[in-house]
């Protein structure tokens, strides 16, 4: 990058921007006057910002809003539990919570699937299919009214934290072998 910057002719109106998650690894020569003169640090979101990110990402999600319900989604508690998360990590929590609900209902749906006996008669198969159709209809109806609960969000935080820790571990491992 230094070679590119040194080889550039002065161009009016051109601004060069760079971004990194590892400011500690920037070559000091890049920070000399006339190169990258300004450093703008964008910190991780604070508790209130994390709460707003969660609320925005949950706008289209059916979740339990009744504070008297044991499944109530408390965004204040979720924001507290996500200290150290980036905005992208916090946004991923809402999507992950939704995926948990979808998987729960897919599991119910597959359990309600057709399991006809090999030696059953045509009449028995019709009865079995009719029962399974009713069961599938119940599952579909419950899926339509499904809500993301606090438990889903808490599980999502754990999963995103694990993925985040894995990414950090991979970065450390990769940099150790350079």
UniProtKB/TrEMBL annotation:
It comes from the Archaea. Pfam families: AAA (PF00004), AAA_lid_3 (PF17862). Residues 73-111 form the AAA ATPase AAA+ lid domain. Residues 1-44 form the ATPase AAA-type core domain. The keyword Nucleotide-binding applies. SUPFAM superfamilies: P-loop containing nucleoside triphosphate hydrolases (SSF52540). Keywords: ATP-binding, Nucleotide-binding. InterPro entries: AAA_ATPase_domain, AAA_lid_3, ATPase_AAA_core, ATPase_AAA_CS, P-loop_NTPase. GO terms for molecular function: ATP binding; ATP hydrolysis activity. Gene3D superfamilies: 1.10.8.60, P-loop containing nucleotide triphosphate hydrolases. PANTHER family: AAA-FAMILY ATPASE, NUCLEAR VALOSIN-CONTAINING PROTEIN-LIKE. Belongs to the AAA ATPase family. This is AAA family ATPase (VCP, CDC48). It comes from uncultured marine thaumarchaeote KM3_33_G02. The lineage of its organism: Archaea, Nitrososphaerota, environmental samples. The gene is CDC48.
